[in-house]
Amino acid sequence: MQRIEIISNDSVQENDILLPLYSMSVSAGIPLPVEEDIEDEIDLNSFLIQHPNSTFFAKVIGDAKNFEGIRDGDLLIVDSFCRPEDGKLILVQINHHLAIRRYRVFEGTEYFETPLGQFIPIQSNFFDTLDFIGVVRHLIHSY
Question: Of the candidates 19, 52, 47, which has an alpha carbon nearest to the alpha carbon of residue 33?
Answer without folding.
Answer: 19
